[in-house]
Design brief:
This protein has one domain. The protein has five helices and no strands. The radius of gyration is 24 Å and the shape is elongated. It has 200 residues and is mostly helical.
C-alpha cells in the first residue's frame, strides 16, 4: 500500500469513527435534553402545555404515512420516543462528521456543540419540518415554547459536543501512542543490531 493510500485509509477511518462517536453522543445527549424539555414544559402556562414537538413530529409523520388513525395512545407514545432518540442520533452523526473541521475554530467542544444544536433547531422547526407539512413553523408558536425548544437544543448540543470532544481526544491520544509504539518497534531491530564502536 502506498503512503497516500495509507493516509487516505487513516483519514476515512477517523471520519467514520467520528460519525459513530457523534451518533452515540447524540443518542446519549437526547436524554438530558428530554428531561430539560419536560421540566420546562411543566413550567409553561397551562394553555401553552399542548404536546411538545417530538410528539407533533411523530404524529405528523404518521399522518403523512397514512397510518395515524390506526395508532392507539401506546403506539403514538412509542413512535414519539423512537423517532425523538433516532433523530438525536442522526443529528449527532452529522455533528460527528463535521466536528473535525469545527475543531479548527478553536472553540470549546461544548460551545461548538451548542451552536450546532441551535442550527438543528432552526433547520428543523423553521426549515424542513414545516416545508414537508409535518408541523407548523416555530414562528406560529408562542415565544415561551420557542425559548423552551431552543434551550433544549442548547442542552443537547452542548452535551453531544462535549462527549464527542472528549472521546475524539481520547481516540487521538490512543492513536498517537499506538503510532509511537509501532515506530519504536520498527526501529528496535536496527538499534539492537548496531554494536557500539571503539572503546568508550
Amino acid at each position: 500500500m502506498t503512503k497516500p493510500q495509507a493516509q487516505l485509509n487513516e483519514r476515512t477511518e477517523a471520519t467514520m469513527n467520528r460519525i459513530l462517536l457523534g451518533a452515540l453522543a447524540g443518542l446519549a445527549a437526547t436524554a438530558p435534553m428530554t428531561l430539560a424539555m419536560k421540566l420546562m414544559h411543566e413550567a409553561l402556562p397551562e394553555h401553552e402545555q399542548y404536546p411538545l414537538p417530538p410528539r407533533q413530529v411523530a404524529e405528523g409523520m404518521a399522518e403523512k404515512a397514512g397510518v395515524n388513525r390506526h395508532l392507539d395512545e401506546e403506539d403514538r407514545e412509542s413512535a414519539t420516543w423512537a423517532s425523538h432518540f433516532a433523530y438525536g442520533a442522526a443529528c449527532g452523526a452529522l455533528y460527528g462528521a463535521l466536528s473535525e473541521s469545527l475543531d479548527g475554530l478553536g472553540a470549546p467542544p461544548a460551545l461548538m456543540g451548542a451552536g450546532f444544536g441551535v442550527a438543528v433547531w432552526a433547520g428543523s422547526y423553521l426549515g424542513w419540518l414545516p416545508a414537508a407539512g409535518i408541523i407548523s413553523p416555530a414562528t406560529e408558536h408562542p415565544p415561551r415554547r420557542n425559548a423552551l425548544m431552543i434551550a433544549a437544543h442548547l442542552v443537547w448540543g452542548a452535551t453531544a459536543g462535549a462527549v464527542v470532544g472528549k472521546l475524539a481526544d481520547g481516540g487521538r491520544e490512543k492513536f498517537a501512542a499506538r503510532k509511537r509504539r509501532t515506530q519504536r518497534l520498527a526501529r528496535r531491530p536496527i538499534e539492537t543490531s548496531q554494536k557500539p564502536g571503539g572503546g568508550r
